[in-house]
Write a structure and sequence with these properties.
heterodimer, A: 645 residues, alpha/beta, eight-stranded mixed sheet, six-stranded parallel sheet, 14 strands, B: alpha/beta, flat
């Protein structure tokens, strides 16, 4: 659940720009260090060879190969980066062999040169060199086999299809693949260094050849096993058959950048409870590994044509947590009720865009969602909307009129949960840097100070140092005050558990505030820019049922911060009706079991779809096996296309 | 990668043979030629460019190493070899890295043509297949000559030649890189671009995204857009890092803008508030990045009127309106029950067809009758299985060539030959047969050329597609091909009403094609049905189709101006930190 907080969440007054930046893995200093070591190793090896200092060459080889092992173990992005500029792992192996073996031998002393004339070495060493390359190359080739041609699935076992083979970590085999190189590029300088005999050189060569051969054979065998899964077209056919046996009625269609798996995860718990047979389809392979555990069958299919073949006729409803471009691939199919369910935060403006009118239905939490869409004047129709509540908030304990809650709070407790500073200063609604410390001090100075729980946003201090300083300062203050104040560092306590352990929350404009409304507990909102009250309320309706505090801890509503907290800790019975009305408006009417309410909604959507599209959907036959005539690289690179005429 | 293994095998072969410098020389030349040829054919080699050649060069160096080992050499010569190889590898790698830098910068930023903007456009280095391989023969030869104690003077010359060639290839890349690095920051360039456009205040944005082979989808609209540009000012927006876009668009004076990413598109629209109407000639997933931007009225144009199932696609609901040619399209959309509402459909005619009608008034040539065979392409999806080229194409051509009184004009769909190899091969066989027979022609080109072919035809044999529908405008007989594999003639006619005013030939009846052609050319029995169908599909043509379309656009714009509040330029951003890419 905490994943929801890990995203930029300040509800900006106007639509936020989509954040489409892919999560590019950054190259860290460690990576650079390893890279430097590798280059240094090569340089030392070259210097050793050129200067006829075999020991130096030996050090260079070991440094270079050692750093390659480090790159593999650390899963450093260096490997990819270097491959991108044409120096793949296998090529680097060749380079070290070239320097440490051939150049070394070629430049060796006259005595050593005698060894060169030895018949066996002239054949053995080049052969070993070639096998060093092939071992590394075949390891890369085997690893590629696990990509499965852009198909992966699990959970279809009961329907006659064992899970696709997931890619193994591959660290061990990558290191084994380097062993022949280590023997060869280390052994040859070593033999020269100790003035060894030609026989020594032959031993080195033979060991390297054996290791190289073994590694190559192991990789070929592993890849051959993958072939048993059949060709891609064959697997599509078997998938289709298994899916027809399973006959899902609902598809959760998911596409998001690598950092966006949370948008699927917020639905997994709810989806596990669906009574309609459900299939999760991901357009990106990476989500499979990052998904929360589920018993629902999961499918990853890379091509648009796969979606055409694998959306079997039983499918009636498609649920969309995102509006990614690839939504197109299933949207183009006829006879499906396409439903946008968003990813839980109905209050977030970035997901409100005119494109969403493409969906048959848009499910929003409460009436506020409908109003927000309709305010866009972009062709939305009221009949497109269904209010479904927020099943994700089921965990949040609700306070009753008499002050009792499902999860008891032992003593008066205030939760301070500020948001982070955002990617852009214009969407910085955090109170932490300027108001955080005074707020905490003021509460600690109360005659009867409440217990304070402090849960900063995990991304706080990402962009601004003063955020980190304030966070540390509050930590110190609470520690000095002793008793049972608590700081919830990253991930230790979930956001909703923190809600349940407090009577009152102080927070900023963010999705946290909207979620908290589900508890019906009183809250205090900060106004860190001291915006005029009327503007503030207009821009952020979720703040309307709370006390709004300016930077000097006063309030334009009349009561100061301490009075507001005292009033809130007493339960603020006067404001309760307003809080409930606001929660109903933003989050939908409270139901006893919001998950079940959603499940029922899905079931009735399947019925609606059957009424709306009574005819069986016509799904084209899967491609023939020899239909691999499709030029795959072009089709894959091309993305989804639709064309008329 | 297979090529790398081949290279390595070649290197070992060099060692295994009784090695002389000449045998290695021969192998080096063979490798060079094969790589250059492969680079010409293979897309991935072209894309990887130098990356692959780095591998080749290193492998070739292994061969050199083996030769050196085998032959032995003086320490001095080996020193020289080592240094030359190191310098060459270094330069080669530097060259490749520079190219990547140029490409990355170039494809990540906005670009434009036909606009006067106070900011430079990025420069790109066009990849030339094989050019990167130029120094390789010298590269491989130099050490070998050195080892074999060739005259030092020869070695010197070779070395200088080799270095000079490398340095030469570095010059244009470095220039482009410097230019691209010196460009103002992207926000400033975008601001300059939108500023220039604000002064010009365009009203229509045409969104286009396609691979090179599908550029016809916008080029077919180019004449219409040029006329539209005279009245309303049009900007063509291409998106998504596809380097070929500007190259594949027909020469035009309409401003072209290329943007990358949803954020740039959103900002662009926001900063040019005069833009009111967005037109989309293709229904593709990247459209979403513009469809999601508020403030524009989104209209799907398509690129041809036909009965193809793909033409009615629920994803079309994302548009505010769909502009269609005639009643037939309206019924198709509404009958499909895909959630498109009648008020979203606007009949604007098929403006392109005006040009076809003009061409047709020119006298038809001579006494020889001409027949056009116009197969469509297999498309992206299984659903698009309308192409006859693979299953019937050769039989069609045979039937036509069997009669020697006909001129056959083969007009394949512009994208036929891409994506599906078997269809491409079938098409190539047809072209080969026609050229062997002589006196026939092949037209795979612009809409104008296709229309010229149609205008001269006495009979059209075509698949489901826009050629068939456009041909209705000429009121001449046609034969429709049913390549869908469905033998149910009634169902086919119901799904494809455009075929009902002609004879339909399917896989079973293809043998009778000769006789059907004979009948169609001698007695026109479908004239009445055809005329009705023509109006249903292409709309009323009492006003010239282009004028009718232009009037519809003006009407739509007037309506939008009257009913929607004018967009205003948002206030400038508070902070300049916007451009900072903060990692997540």
């Amino acid at each position: 659940m905490d994943a929801r907080r890990a995203k930029p969440n300040a509800a900006a007054p106007r639509p936020q720009r989509t954040s489409v930046r892919s999560s590019v893995t950054r190259i860290s200093f460690v990576d650079l260090g390893v890279l430097t070591t590798q280059v240094l190793g090569l340089v030392i090896a070259a210097a050793g060879a050129l200067g006829v200092h075999p020991w130096l060459t030996l050090v260079g080889s070991i440094l270079s190969i050692g750093s390659q092992i480090a790159i593999t173990v650390l899963r450093s992005p260096i490997n990819r980066a270097l491959s991108y500029i044409g120096i793949s792992r296998a090529i680097r192996v060749l380079l070290i062999v070239l320097l440490a073996v051939f150049l070394e031998l070629a430049l060796a002393s006259a005595a050593a040169a005698g060894n060169l004339r030895h018949g066996a070495t002239v054949w053995l060493l080049p052969l070993a060199g070639a096998l060093c390359f092939l071992a590394t190359f075949s390891d890369q080739w085997r690893a590629r086999g696990y990509r499965g041609g852009g198909l992966a699935w699990r959970g279809l076992g009961p329907y006659g299809l064992a899970d696709s083979t997931p890619a193994p970590a591959g660290i061990v085999s990558a290191i084994v693949a380097l062993a022949p190189t280590l023997v060869l590029a280390g052994g040859v300088p070593l033999v020269l260094g100790i003035n060894g005999t030609p026989a020594d050189l032959v031993v080195v060569g033979v060991i390297s050849v054996i290791l190289g051969l073994a590694s190559c054979i192991a990789n070929v065998v592993a890849r051959a096993r993958l072939l048993r899964q059949g060709s891609r077209a064959d697997r599509v056919i078997r998938l289709r058959a298994a899916l027809e046996r399973y006959s899902p009625e609902v598809v959760i269609f998911f596409s998001a950048p690598a950092s966006g798996t949370y948008a699927l995860n917020v639905w997994i718990q709810t989806a596990n409870a669906f009574s309609a047979r459900t299939l999760i389809v991901s357009k990106e392979a990476g989500h499979l590994a990052r998904m929360e555990p589920t018993s629902i069958p999961v499918l990853f299919a890379s091509r648009a044509r796969d979606i055409e073949f694998l959306t079997v006729p039983s499918v009636k409803v498609v649920l969309h947590p995102t509006t990614a471009n690839k939504v197109f691939e299933i949207m183009r199919l006829r006879g499906l009720l396409q439903v946008f369910i968003g990813h839980g935060d109905s209050d977030k403006v970035s997901s409100f865009n005119p494109y969403s009118k493409v969906f048959d239905e848009i499910w929003v939490s409460g009436p506020a969602g409908i109003d927000r869409y309709m305010a866009l004047t972009e062709g939305f129709r009221r009949e497109q909307f269904v209010t479904v509540g927020r099943p994700q908030l089921a965990e949040i304990a609700t306070v009753a009129a008499d002050g009792s809650t499902e999860v008891a709070v032992p003593r008066p407790t205030v939760l301070y949960a500020p948001t982070w500073e955002g990617f852009l200063e214009q969407s910085n609604y955090s109170s932490l840097a300027h108001m955080g410390v005074p707020l905490v001090r003021a509460m600690l100075a109360m005659p009867n100070p409440p217990r304070i729980l402090f849960k900063p946003h995990p991304s706080s201090g990402h962009r601004r140092a003063d955020m980190r300083e304030a966070q540390d300062e509050i930590g110190r203050l609470l520690e000095d005050a002793g008793s049972d104040h608590q700081v919830f560092a990253d991930g230790t306590v979930s956001l909703y558990a923190a809600f349940n352990s407090a009577d009152v929350m102080i927070t900023d404009i963010s999705s946290v505030l909207t979620d908290f409304l589900a508890s019906h507990k009183p809250y205090v909102v900060t106004n860190p820019r001291d915006e005029p009250l009327a503007d503030f309320l207009l821009a952020f309706p979720s703040s309307a049922a709370g006390a709004i505090i300016d930077t000097d801890l006063s309030s334009q509503q009349g009561t100061g911060f301490i009075e507001a907290i005292e009033q809130a800790l007493e339960g603020d019975a006067a404001g309760r009706a307003a809080r409930i009305a606001l929660a109903d408006y933003l989050l939908g009417p409270v139901s006893a079991d919001p998950v079940q309410a959603f499940v029922d909604q899905v079931t009735s959507a399947v019925e609606r779809a059957k009424v709306r599209y009574p005819a069986d959907r016509i799904v084209p036959a899967p491609p023939e096996i020899e239909g691999a005539a499709l030029v795959t690289t072009v089709a894959a690179a091309d993305g989804a296309e639709g064309a008329a005429g | 990668m297979i090529r790398r293994i081949l290279l390595l095998a070649a290197a070992l072969a060099a060692a295994a043979s009784t090695v002389t410098h000449w045998s290695v020389l021969v192998i080096a030349v063979i490798l060079y030629v094969t790589t250059a040829l492969l680079a010409r054919r293979d897309r991935s080699v072209r894309r990887n460019g130098d990356a692959d050649q780095t591998g080749a060069a290193i492998v070739l160096s292994v061969a050199t190493g083996i030769v050196v080992l085998h032959g032995g050499a003086s320490a001095r010569a080996l020193w020289e070899v080592a240094i030359v190889l190191a310098v060459l590898h270094g330069l080669h790698l530097a060259r490749h890295v520079l190219r990547i830098l140029v490409f990355r910068r170039w494809r990540g930023v906005a670009d434009w043509r036909n606009l006067t903007v106070a900011a430079p456009v990025p420069r790109r280095v066009a990849p030339v297949a094989g050019a990167t391989l130029v120094p390789i023969p010298v590269w491989i030869l130099a050490p070998i000559f050195a080892v074999y104690d060739v005259d030092p003077f020869v070695y010197l010359i070779l070395g200088i030649l080799c270095l000079a060639l490398m340095v030469l290839t570095l010059i244009p890349i470095s220039q482009a890189l410097l230019h691209n690095l010196r460009m103002p920051p992207e926000s400033a360039r975008l601001a300059a671009l939108t500023g220039a456009l604000r002064d010009w205040s365009p009203e229509i944005l045409v969104h286009f995204n396609a691979r090179a082979a599908s550029a016809y989808a916008i080029n077919d609209w180019m004449t219409v857009l040029a006329r539209l540009n005279e009245q309303h000012r049009v900007v063509i927006l291409t998106v998504d890092r596809q380097p070929w876009h500007f190259d594949t668009i027909t020469e035009t004076s309409i401003p072209l803008v290329h943007l990358n990413g949803a954020e740039a598109i959103e900002r662009f629209v926001e900063q040019v508030p005069s833009l009111t109407l967005a037109l989309y000639p293709r229904n593709t997933s990247p459209n979403k990045n513009l469809l999601r931007v508020p403030g524009l009225y989104d209209v799907y144009l398509g690129h041809g009127e036909s009965d193809k199932a793909e033409a009615v696609n629920p994803a079309t609901r994302a548009f505010d309106e769909v502009w269609i040619a005639g009643e037939a399209a309206r019924d198709r959309y509404l009958d499909a029950g895909i959630g498109i509402r009648a008020e979203q459909l606007r009949i604007t005619g098929r403006p392109q067809v005006g040009a076809l009608l003009e061409l047709a008034t020119a006298a038809r040539s001579g006494e020889r009758k001409s027949v056009v065979y116009a197969p469509t392409w297999p498309g992206y999806y299984a659903e698009d299985g309308y192409s006859s080229v693979e299953v019937m194409g050769e039989q069609v051509v045979s039937a036509l060539l069997d009669r020697d009184d006909l001129t056959v004009i083969y007009v394949p769909h512009p994208a036929l030959g891409t994506l599906n190899r078997r269809a491409a091969e079938a098409s190539e066989r047809i072209v080969a047969r026609l050229s062997r027979a002589g006196g026939h022609s092949v037209v795979q080109g612009s809409l104008d050329e296709r229309y010229a072919a149609l205008a001269g035809a006495d009979l059209l044999i075509a698949d489901i597609g826009s050629d068939l529908v456009d041909f209705l405008a000429l009121d001449r007989p046609y034969i429709a091909l049913n390549a869908t594999g469905s033998a149910d003639a009634a169902a086919f006619a119901e799904a494809n009403p455009s075929t009902t005013a002609g004879v339909v030939i399917d896989l079973d009846s293809i043998a009778t094609l000769g006789a059907v052609v004979e009948r169609a050319l001698s007695a026109d029995t479908h004239a009445a049905a055809r005329a009705k169908l023509g109006v249903r599909y292409l709309g009323d043509r009492s006003t010239p189709p282009l004028d009718r379309f232009l009037a519809a656009v003006s009407l739509c714009l007037d309506h939008l101006h009257a009913t929607r509040p004018a967009r205003v330029l948002p206030p400038p951003e508070e902070s300049s930190e916007l451009e900072e890419a903060v990692p997540e």
